[in-house]
């Protein structure tokens, strides 16, 4: 073990004592900014630094006085679940002038602040970088004017800056997701889901305008997530004659028994002549050409409001801690950086490279070079765009590539939100690839009973927003019924299988792979998509359904915390699902601001329970008189939820009282979150394209024969990429007794949760973001 320790770098060596960090939010507000502020404050205090709030963004820095205020641990309590920014944000003209920046520098020096953490959009971050470049000049001026002495200039000679991007538009290059984007999508999808029910009743067409003056991300992703009929975004202006095409598509959809149409428009949508396309123009067009009853809804500032989603809280908390680490490690030569997310990985990127690339997008769009703009937006945007095109435009039968392959889709295991989005995507992409798609009801139980029927393009309309599993799902494993399943494969001439499910689906694929030696019928390409709320499947960092479940847990914890705040001195013990996998409890605990989380993967004993009780007793002496403790259902056989509840009740007598809550199956239900709809849609489309490729490769002498390891794969998200991994190779990585992977990435988030709950802990920063450079994908030259 000692050897492994050497390669690790722990942040105990990074001390913040003697340093002062200023944190500000600037520009338009975004949900999750408070979570970022909270993380910066607590991590800063934890490493021994002083942390200051700079109220009202740059305006507060210029005005000084009470706007710059030292933060305490308690001052950021109860911020996590609040939308917007508690420390205020303002657009500041004065900071753009030299005089304004001189005043700001003076106020920072007065407090000894030489580390700035700026949470805002590209304008705010560019301003911060300019400020840093001018810093030594500004200090010289302040000395000349006699406002500060030479010693103060010496002590504050370097200004370090780290940025975090808070913007609901997701319009910043170099980061997959900006803080606030996921929450804004939640607001949009809540509205669209609500509108769909009324549109259905009256057979109406709805035109929705979403935010995004220069960036179509929100419009594009919400269109993907609700299966909109048409989307208009600045990066993809429609060709001349689009009005006719759109009306034709709307009327085709109505003819195909669809009772409603949804058209989503980004506020910055333009046509190919740079002329704005407004919602009113579209409404008049639909009424004039088709006579459909049409309504317009402009979402406006609703999208900025409301409580941050689980994803935004975790993103902001991770980024906030990362920002403090980056400030502690900064030197005079390191460029100002932004902490950002690439895939599931925290990265640091030079601020100006990102800003430059973001400005290049705008330049490309001004020059009508839209393909370049899309490419510069990054791979996440490009993937979304390509998936939307694949799923929305049904080709005429004559245009389809002709394949004589039949592909079956089924759900296995417990229901998970987002399964239906994955099935819809598989069916539509499969049909576009020329295959015949078959749906199997009730998992492998339905398979051996012959519950298999062809499923068409129109059959999966409206499935993205539905929770649970429409096809039906069972935990039955195929091993006992191999002969009957093989017979059904022959009867229906099934040439490939797409299995969507959790740990059982993984076991099913392994059993079918191993049965290839005795049954040639299983020598077909097989792919599995991880879909389980527990997120306990090997070979993937994330599973379809886990995000929806996290949001359900976090929403409930918010309500419980509110109830506890009212009664004072109350501790809640909450039990989450997940089998032996502590993902929901740990990540839910991080997003809800839990004081302790008990999981199977991190063994605990009576001493740990005792120290947690003492920690809460201390907490009750402060202004925050409530506690939240999460326990995974299988974390310990003997320390049950009841036991922990009784222990806390006894030990806390006279200091706090206790309540317990078992969340149960509410964690499995509900409409899928935007993330799960999109994740399901995208990985499913990718899986079908892989199946098509494998079918072509393994088709010889009139039949499909695939018996190699790489034709039975699981498609998972690994750090930064989606990867197909042979299930047989994942066997080594799996603990089959407890149904969890042997190595789980999220365990490294646990110290983060402990730090933010004021526990002393060891935090491995060897995996924290190293400074990288923005990569530009150059188009291939022919």
Distance between the termini: 52 Å
Beta-sheet strand percentage? Answer: 15-25%
Tally of strands: 27
- Derived from helix and strand composition plus strand pairing, the structural class reads alpha/beta
Mean pLDDT level:
91
Instruction: Catalogue the unreliable spans.
Output: 1-8, 777-782
Q: How many helical stretches? A: 25
**Computed Rg:** 27 Å
Shape: globular
Secondary structure: helix percent: 40-55%
Largest sheet, strands/sense/barrel: 8 strands, mixed
GO cellular component, one term: 6-phosphofructokinase complex
Function: Catalyzes the phosphorylation of D-fructose 6-phosphate to fructose 1,6-bisphosphate by ATP, the first committing step of glycolysis.
Enzyme class: transferase
Subcellular location: Cytoplasm
Question: In words, what does this structure look like?
Answer:
The structure is a single chain. The two termini are 52 Å apart. With 782 residues, the chain is an alpha/beta fold. The protein contains 25 helices and 27 strands. A hairpin with a 2-residue loop joins strand 24 and strand 25 (721-726). Homo- and heterotetramers. This is ATP-dependent 6-phosphofructokinase. The active site is at residue 169.
Q: What's the quick description here?
A:
The chain has 782 residues and is of the alpha/beta class.
Structural features:
kinase; fructose-6-phosphate binding; 7-stranded mixed sheet; 25 helices; alpha/beta; PKF_sf; 782 residues; globular; 17% strand; transferase
